Inverse folding.
């Protein structure tokens, strides 16, 4: 069998790990080993079906050394322990290996044990949600961010290109943290906002109808964001400067403390962004009045 350009192994075949590994395997790369926790018979059979040529082991200590790149795709709080365990594997020459973890927030110091042994290390984080295991489509045509050594960057570029995706090279842990927070805000905060909105109207509108109403609004909002620049995608009372409407919203939310906090804080962020680019004196005066209203207890 012809060996691929990048033979890789994987620790943690969860949603992200299994999807990225499967996408790379389908693109011609060779998955050499997969380290997994004890699985049910059905789950092990599925793993074997998806990666028929991979050596399946239950411990990092049993990892075979025939790989160029090792992906660590476990929970954030397990990465450091996994790296420490790997550093005690005596039959792997780490000077010839590149180790990448998929976390968007765990620092490179988590891999310091391996770097001290000569490994090239980095964090390669997919900026996209993964809804299921063994779903290579989630790993393709997305953005990945990277921070790490020069050799690790070379492999990251090859891998991301093979995944038909784009790579954002970062230069500090602070940049990684800010990008990760921005991703959470853009993703989870939308889900939470829609869920909160759905609960507010669930007592008088059927769930099926409420989901349809809110999904239509989301579709329109997404189109606005795609076609307009930044805060110009905003609509509603903030843009119109409808102080009376905003006052009525605040009054209606008095009994929903968390939702009211969210309404005020998100609206304040919108007002502050609008003030940065608003030069009309009358409009600025209206926005400042709304800001004071939102800041009031």
């Amino acid at each position: 069998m012809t060996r691929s350009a990048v033979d890789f192994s994987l620790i943690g075949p969860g949603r992200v790990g299994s999807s990225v590994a499967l996408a790379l395997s389908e693109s011609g790369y060779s998955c050499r080993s997969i380290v997994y926790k004890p699985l049910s018979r059905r789950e092990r059979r599925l793993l074997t079906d998806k990666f028929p040529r991979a050596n399946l082991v239950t411990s990092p200590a049993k990892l075979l050394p025939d790989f160029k790149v090792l992906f660590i795709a476990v929970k954030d709080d397990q990465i450091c322990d996994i790296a420490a365990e790997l550093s005690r594997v005596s039959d792997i020459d780490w000077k010839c290996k590149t180790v990448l973890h998929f976390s968007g927030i765990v620092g490179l110091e988590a891999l310091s044990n391996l770097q001290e042994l000569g490994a090239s290390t980095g964090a390669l984080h997919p900026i996209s949600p993964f809804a299921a295991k063994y779903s290579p489509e989630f790993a393709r045509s997305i953005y990945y961010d990277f921070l790490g050594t020069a050799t690790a960057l070379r492999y990251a570029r090859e891998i991301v290109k093979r995944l038909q995706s784009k790579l954002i090279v970062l230069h500090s842990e602070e940049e990684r943290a800010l990008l990760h927070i921005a991703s959470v805000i853009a993703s989870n905060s939308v889900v939470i906002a829609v869920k909160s909105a759905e609960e507010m109207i669930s007592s008088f509108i059927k769930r099926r109808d409420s989901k349809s109403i809110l999904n239509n609004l989301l579709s329109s909002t997404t189109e606005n964001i795609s076609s307009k620049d930044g805060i110009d995608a905003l609509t509603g009372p903030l843009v119109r400067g409808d102080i009376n409407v905003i006052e009525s919203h605040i009054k209606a939310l008095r009994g929903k403390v968390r939702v009211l906090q969210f309404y005020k804080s998100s609206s304040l962020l919108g007002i502050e962004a609008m003030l940065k680019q608003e030069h009309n004196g009358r409009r600025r005066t209206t926005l400042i009045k709304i800001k004071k209203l939102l800041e009031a207890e």
Summary: The first strand starts at residue 7 and ends at 11. The two ends are 70 Å apart (CA to CA). The mean pLDDT is 95. The chain has two domains: 7-171, 177-295.
